[in-house]
Amino acid sequence: MRWKNAAVLALALLAVGCSSNSKKELPPADLPDITEEVTLSKGWSRSVGDGQGSTYNLLVPAVDGDTIFAADVDGVVMALNRFNGDVIWKKDFELPVSGAVGVGYGLVMFGTLKGEVVALDATNGEEKWRARVKGEVLAPPANNGDVVVVQTQNDSLVGFDAATGNQRWIYENTPAVLTLRGTGAPIVTNNLAVAGLSTGKVLALDIQRGIPVWESRVAVPQGRSELDRVVDIDGGLLLSGGTLYVATYQGRVAALELESGRVLWEREASSYAGVAQGFGNVYVSLANGSVEGVDERSASALWTNDALARRQLSAPEVFSSYVAVGDYEGYLHLLSQVDGHFVGREKIDGDGLRARPLVVGEWVYAFGNSGKLVGLTIR
């Protein structure tokens, strides 16, 4: 088990995009000069504790109405006005937070390295309930108002009563022998709990009973070594209408029909970060540092921007007519959705920017590794 944990940490570093059989590791690409066509304007900036911490956490903030919620690695949870950054409430739980934050239906939820799940009252930050699972919680819990669903590092899914925290069901999976460090957040609807697994599969459960409804394999492990056969779904799932989008490491990016799991289209890709969708296209941050735009109708690449090679990109997010993506030096880049060329850039955090940007309306929120949370608009 210790060997496996060490390998998990090593793979998190491996995923920067260099081939395991390369003779010499190439450095991250230098930033290219760009002609700014739009300017990102910082509306406000606040510090949220120690941010992501030294382990490979992806503590993405969440918005509910006019409030943005964020948590740091040591258990500081904050609610802020998303338009001006004013603090509404702040709590320090002194917990090793690793999966944060999920919001909705009056709850703010997070998970910990010790297998704890904590639900707070969104209005004042008071703890409503606390539950325990068997395994680290590396992604935010999800909530449909009735059931809170949590995915653990060992690919188990657990359903809790949203009002009381009592466990309703558990569905255990057998994880891959080796995995990247991380899991994507589950998606919940009125009927389904959907999760991406370390085995390259997407699983949908009946949300009331925790029994399988469908299972779809997106990536097939290939290669002689266990390293070659890693096909984790770590970037999370994206739901748009009735279509589910997913990307795997050393596998594929695909679109699935939500109700049946039927694969609508797929193409080869390797991503540990995730995807975004807009204007009939899907955008992927690839493991090698390229950003790719994919036409949903043909499943072919519309454009590829490889100028950020090996810069450890965050997941992309659609912002206005652009694609926003962060990198290891803390820059937030804006790319054109049409052809992928750079249109703008802003330095957010010198310690890096690995959490997915969060877009709500005319605002984009970036949470830097050191804990700097910034709200930006286009000027």
From TrEMBL:
GO biological process: Gram-negative-bacterium-type cell outer membrane assembly; protein insertion into membrane
Location, primary (coarse class): membrane
Location of this chain's protein in the cell: Cell outer membrane
SUPFAM superfamilies tied to this protein: Quinoprotein alcohol dehydrogenase-like (SSF50998)
GO cellular component: cell outer membrane
Top-rank taxon, per record: Bacteria
Keywords assigned: Cell outer membrane, Lipoprotein, Membrane, Palmitate, Signal
Topology of the protein relative to the lipid bilayer: Lipid-anchor
Domain Pyrrolo-quinoline quinone repeat: 74-305
Residues making up the signal peptide according to the UniProt record: 1-24
PROSITE patterns tied to this protein: PROKAR_LIPOPROTEIN
SUBUNIT field: Part of the Bam complex.
Record's function text: Part of the outer membrane protein assembly complex, which is involved in assembly and insertion of beta-barrel proteins into the outer membrane.
Record-stated family: Belongs to the BamB family.
HAMAP family assigned to the protein according to its UniProt record, in alphabetical order: OM_assembly_BamB (MF_00923)
Name of the protein: Outer membrane protein assembly factor BamB
Source species of the chain: Metapseudomonas resinovorans NBRC 106553
Gene: bamB
